[in-house]
Design goal:
The N and C termini lie far apart (41 Å). The chain is α/β, with parallel strands linked by helices. The protein is globular and about 60 Å long. The strands form three sheets. The protein has a seven-stranded parallel β-sheet with strand order 3-2-1-4-5-6-10, with helices on both faces. Strands 7, 9, 11 and 13 form a four-stranded mixed β-sheet that branches. A two-stranded parallel ribbon has the order 8-12. The protein has a domain of 224 residues: 3-Layer(aba) Sandwich (Rossmann fold).
Length: 323
């Protein structure tokens, strides 16, 4: 198949491009003049200059394609509350859906997030059918992605566009040079003492997530959501695995959630520098545990143990001179 990919130069997207090509698909990536392409320069793919904000450039990019994987999104915490959030996540997704319809009702895979499924204050394993209850504040990103998902389902129901949704959990892996999740491993290794809170997440390797997304090009049912999960681990367990992989015997400080949230939010409101972004902390003290059996059954999705994934990240951090 010929697959049009937005966000193909990103951390997850670059691995999706890799596996698509490995599977024998032809790949065309949406890129801007300023896009950093170091992760995919070695691959044999077509480049299409355009912008997620320009429907015409998207429609032209999808010409002769069979499917679309829409990965382009916001990943930096300091951009979550900027105008880019709505422009990229909401308007950009609408543009992709409209372009896919104009290009011949192409199959669309919208890459959402586990945060758009839900997060809980106590450990609870969530499924695709779980009730979404996250407030708009401070969960701006999750609510934006949820709105984009609803738009996808509306296009499926009203326009018969064959769109399906995948919801990756927390993604770790080597070569995360934007430090999307590797930042926590780096800080845990470098800081003294190591610090953790009460919370937890489904944690998966970037390659496992990318293979799940790649599989959805030919597998899975339009109109459905698929959680791409991982091992459900508590925040304290992640900290312990990082220290174990780094062979460090270091004191770990278990911070109380309520006091820590209050302190960080107060510092932020006063304009003081904080050791962690307030929105990131709000996510860290929730549980994002996932049941991904639907993806396992319908997409043949698999994932490796969290300890193995974290070990690879720690090894990369050291090899790359980040710690």
């Amino acid at each position: 198949m010929k697959v049009f990919v937005t966000g193909g130069n990103g951390f997850i997207g670059s691995r999706v491009v890799h596996f698509l090509i490995q599977e024998g698909h032809t790949v065309r990536c949406l890129l801007r003049e300023t896009s950093k392409t170091h992760r995919i320069d070695a691959y044999d793919f077509e480049r299409h200059l355009g912008d997620i904000r320009d429907v015409d450039s998207l429609t032209e990019g999808m010409r002769d394609c069979d499917a679309v994987i829409h990965l382009a999104s916001i990943s930096a915490w300091d951009q979550i509350r900027s105008p880019l959030m709505r422009t990229i996540v909401i308007d950009g997704t609408r543009n992709v859906l409209n372009a896919a319809q104009k290009a011949g009702n192409l199959r669309v895979i919208f890459v959402s997030t586990m945060v758009a499924v839900n997060g809980t204050k106590a450990p609870e394993v969530l499924t695709e059918e779980s009730t979404f209850s996250l407030p708009a504040e401070p969960f701006v990103y999750g609510n934006a992605k949820r709105e984009a998902e609803e738009m996808c389902l509306a296009f499926f129901q009203e326009h018969k566009l064959p769109v399906l949704i995948v919801n990756p959990c927390e993604v770790w892996g080597p070569n995360d040079d934007d430090f999307i999740t590797a930042e926590y491993a780096r800080d845990t290794i470098k800081d003294w003492p190591a610090m953790t809170v009460k919370g937890g997440t489904a944690l998966a390797h970037v390659d496992d997530i990318a293979m799940g997304i790649t599989a959805s090009v030919t597998k899975g049912r339009p109109g459905e959501r698929y959680i791409l999960g991982g091992e459900n681990v508590h925040a304290s367990e992640i900290t312990a695995m990082i220290l174990e992989a780094a062979d460090l015997n270091k004191l770990t400080l278990h911070l109380p959630n309520g006091i820590t949230l209050a302190l960080i939010n107060t510092m932020s409101k006063l304009g003081l520098p904080t050791p962690i972004h307030p929105d990131l902390l709000a996510h860290a003290v929730r549980y994002w545990f996932a049941d991904c059996s639907k993806a396992e059954q319908e997409l043949d999705y698999t994932y490796r143990p969290a300890r193995e994934t974290i070990g690879e990240v720690v090894h990369w951090l050291r090899e790359a001179g980040h710690v």
